[in-house]
Amino acid sequence: MAMTDEGKGAGARISFPTPDTMTPAQREVYDQIVSGPRKTLVGPLRAALHNPVLADRWQRLGQVLRFETSLPARLNELAILVTARRWNARLEWAIHAGDAARAGLDAGIIEAIRTCSLPDFGADDDARAVYEYARQLVETGDTAQEVYDAVLRRWGEAGAVELTAVIGYYSMVALTLNVHRVPLPDGVPDTLPVEDGALPSMPPARGPA
Questions:
Q1: Along the 209 residues of the chain, how does pLDDT read in single tens digits?
Q2: Is 171:99 a contact under the CB 8 Å cutoff?
Q3: Is 203 exposed, middle or buried (0-12, 13-18, 19+ CB in 10 A)?
Q4: Buried b (16+ CB within 10 A) or exposed e, 79-96
C-alpha cells in the first residue's frame, strides 16, 4: 500500500505503515508483534512491514535471537551492543543499551563500547570472550581460532551458532535502520557519537578468554 509523507517519521526515507493504513496482511503481523514479548512495533520492523511475509519471518527469527538463546541475556545484549556500535546504529544502540543494563551488564562496559574505549572486564572472562568474538566478526567477517574456541568451550556448538546468528541478525537490523533512516521513538535520546561516513573500530580485549 502506498503511503504519503504523513506516514513517515522525521528524516525517514520511506513511509511506515500505521494501524489505520495497514493492509489486512500487515495488520495480522502487527498484531502478532505487539502481543509478543516486544509489546510494540519499533525499529526495523516498521520498514519490513512493507512486505508482511518478510516482517513475519523477521520478527519470529528476532524473537528467538533476542529472547531464546542459550547465552545469558547480558552477554546476548553485549554482542548486540558491539554490533550496533560498529554499524553506528543509533536506534539499535538506544534500545539495547537499556536492555543490557537491565540484564545486568556492567555500566562501565556499556560506556566503553559507546565511546570505542577498551572495556575493563576484570574477572568477567565470559563477557571478554563475547566482546572479542563480536568485535572480530563485525570488523573482519571472521574470528581467530582461539577466539572461536573460547566461545565453544563455554557454550558449545549451539552457543557458537547462536552468537554468530545474533551478530548477523543485528547487523541486518542496523543496516535497515541506517539506510531507511528509521527515527528514534519520541523521548528516546540519541547518545551514540557518530562521525558521518566513518565506521568505528573497537580495541581488542586484553587478558585470557
A1: 233 333 456 688 999 998 999 999 999 999 988 887 777 888 899 999 999 999 999 989 999 999 999 999 999 999 999 999 999 999 999 999 999 999 999 999 999 999 999 999 999 999 999 999 999 999 999 999 999 999 999 999 999 999 999 999 999 999 999 999 999 988 888 999 987 778 999 999 987 77
A2: no
A3: exposed
A4: bbbbbbbbbbbbbbbbbb
C-alpha 207/C-alpha 24 separation (Å) is 54
As a whole number of angstroms, the distance between CA 159 and CA 176 comes to 26
DSSP the chain: ----GGGSPTT-SS----TTT--HHHHHHHHHHHTSTT-S--THHHHHTTSHHHHHHHHHHHHHHHHS-SS-HHHHHHHHHHHHHHTT-HHHHHHHHHHHHHTT--HHHHHHHHTTPPP--TT-HHHHHHHHHHHHHHHHSS--HHHHHHHHHHHHHHHHHHHHHHHHHHHHHHHHHHHHTPPPPTT--------TT-----PPP-S--
Amino acid at the residue 78: L
